[in-house]
Amino acid sequence: xxxxxxxxxxxxxxxxxxxxxxxxxxxxxxxxxxxxxxxxxxxxxxxxxxxxxxxxxxxxxxxxxxxxxxxxxxxxxxxxxxxxxxxxxxxxxxxxxxxxxxxxxxxxxxxxxxxxxxxxxxxxxxxxxxxxxxxxxxxxxxxxxxxxxxxxxxxxxxxxxxxxxxxxxxxxxxxxxxxxxxxxxxxxxxx
Length: 191
Fold this sequence. Notes:
By secondary structure, the protein is an alpha+beta fold. Helix content is 53%, strand content 19%. It has six helices and five strands. This is Alkaline shock response membrane anchor protein AmaP.
């Protein structure tokens, strides 16, 4: 997922920046940049004197910048935790270029899920349409009894529910990822 890669890169850069600042502080304190810098206190710098001289307007500006950064971080966190790339509305192809027909993606997912759950040996199914509304992809996960004939079930799902979905959406090349997950049956208890 693209957002995961971006998050990893940004967090890596932030980590490198903070590590570099820490190493620079350790080197300065140990005298690597000269004894004059090593003997100074942290608050004894031109920057701290500037903040002291201009504190009336500088601290409110710093607080406003901190609030903006906080809002950006909250937006990023919300996007990471709660956003998905699920499609909500599918754009169907029509003969005329000016017409636009749409279909609710959850309705398609429910129909495919209902058909698959009606097959023998299927305990449950989950279906998502993901990606772009113009070029969606379908992800299907099916929980299957442990004693099921997986080859026959896979063929039935591919030639049944998934073929019906491709036909209904008029997308014979609709990319579909099908995952079959075996579930262990609980042995019957004898009292």
